[in-house]
Amino acid sequence: MKKIVTILISLSLGFTAFGQTDRHCSDEGIKFTEAKDLTIIGKVFPNTPEPYQRIDFNKYGGWTSKDIRLLKMSTGMAVCFRTDSPIITVKTEFYKADNSGKPAWAYRGYDLYIKKDGEWLWAYDVYAPASADESPNLKLIDKMDGTMHECLVYFPIYSWEKSIKIGVQEGSVIEPIDPPFRHNICIHGSSYMHGVSSIRAGATVPGFLTRATGLQFNSLAVSGDCEMQPQFLAALKDVDAEAFVFDAFSNPLAETIEARLFPFIEGLQQAHPGVPLIFISSIYREYRNFIPSKEAQEAAKEQMADSLMRIACKKYKDVYYVKSNATLPNHETSADGVHPDSGGYLLWAESIRKPLLKIFRRYGIK
Questions:
Q1: Based on the number of CB atoms within 10 Å of its own CB, is 235 exposed (0-12), middle (13-18) or buried (19 or more)?
Q2: Is residue 330 very low, low, confident or very high in pLDDT (cuts 50, 70, 90)?
Q3: Under 8 Å between Cβ of 246 and 280
Q4: Whose CB has fewer CB within 10 Å in the chain, the N or C terminal residue?
Q5: pTM score, two decimals?
Q6: Dist. CA 278–CA 268, nearest whole Å
Q7: pLDDT-derived band at 132, boundaries 50, 70, 90
Q8: Nearest to 251 by CA among 190, 210, 207, 306
């Protein structure tokens, strides 16, 4: 527990303790490769008209402007490659770069992991300047030893990219690798799965789960927009996944959960017979602590989800309910009263990791 608390403190406070130094890098002596020509992971739908958006909107109807805005974002996606370059850079052409005051490291930033002794170890991150349509060439890392490394770079969670170019030193090798994670698990959820308030692009629930388990959790997360709507059901019916994980109870009110849950399950089971559908409970939102109306609303949602999932797990085969937690006993992992910070997201991922793995094993997902 002491080790986890230390990690949580680091995740929660790291960006306030260390400002970003000047990461701008000249293009001179740098060889660029478009990320889509390497190994892209984290996409629920592998083939989309734009390589860094998450769905083909022409294949399914009923999308709202909010749906489209969110699904154009590259959250959960990453590029994998191997290189012996002592420097790795990234250069982006944006359709829209987030310029809010929220964590720039995650919202318009890149997050680099490098494999060491068989594990993915965090290396560095960098973020694009606010409101830039085209960012300068930015150093993800430099002064490495020039030996071959396997790399994993997470894309921004709240921006739309037209082009993402990975840069290495001229004369160095950069090449695709086989996808480093096993199986294909679709995780559909709210701003929580999207990663809102995360400090880094890879410090999200899907990111933590993927690296901790070696299983690929592909994110179809949509901030504030996961309410089991018909358009999402239509798209999810067409997903080629070995398992589904749903954060389906965080956004809708109790009456919406009651109206939509069973038709949502039945529609998915018709399209994916024998595939596990795992629903996770929402988490405790700190803004309810001293506001009675918020407490009543959240309690009603929890009670509705718990009662209906008790019925669903008995009524439907291959349906499961897993309880989750993103809060320490002292309630210090909240970023804004609604979302956890990155430490809270790590807690959330850890709270569901073993229950998910136990269910997956029943279906040969190891």
A1: buried
A2: confident
A3: yes
A4: N
A5: 0.92
A6: 12
A7: low
A8: 190
pLDDT band at 12 (very low <50, low <70, confident <90, very high): very low
Angle between helices 342-362 and 205-213 (to 10 degrees): 50
**Amino acid making up residue 36:** K
Report residue 351 CA to chain centroid gap: 16
Express each pLDDT in 212-255 by its tens digit: 999 999 999 999 999 999 999 999 999 999 999 999 999 999 99
DSSP codes, 212-224: HHSEEEEE---TT
Q: What would the mean pLDDT of 274-287 be, rounded to a whole number?
A: 96
Query: Residues 240, 184: contact at Cβ < 8 Å?
Result: yes
Residue corresponding to tokens 């009670």: 303
**Residues in contact with 296: Cβ distance below 8 Å, sequence separation at least 6, in sequence order:** none
Pairing of strands 149-154, 109-116: antiparallel
CB 55 within 8 A of CB 232: no
Are 203 and 171 in contact by the 8 Å Cβ rule? The answer is: no
Are 304 and 346 in contact, with CB atoms under 8 Å apart? no
Assess contact for 250 and 190: CB atoms under 8 A: yes
pLDDT score, position 17: 34
% of the chain beyond a pLDDT of 90: 82
Write down the H helix ranges in the chain: 2-17, 65-71, 104-107, 191-194, 205-213, 230-236, 254-271, 292-315, 342-362
Pairing of strands 78-83, 174-175: antiparallel
Cα 294–chain centre separation = 27
Of 166, 225, 163, 239, which is closest to residue 196 (Cα–Cα)? 225
Q: Whole-angstrom Cα distance, residue 279 to residue 302?
A: 13
Tell the burial category of 290 from Cβ atoms under 10 Å away from its Cβ (0-12, 13-18, 19+): exposed
- Identify each DSSP E strand in 70-158 by its residue range: 78-83, 88-96, 109-116, 119-127, 138-141, 149-154
Q: Which of 249, 217, 263, 201 lies closest to 356, judged by CA?
A: 217
Q: Residues 154-206: pLDDT tens digits?
A: 999 999 999 999 999 999 999 999 999 999 999 999 999 999 999 999 999 99
Residue 272 has pLDDT above 60, yes or no: yes
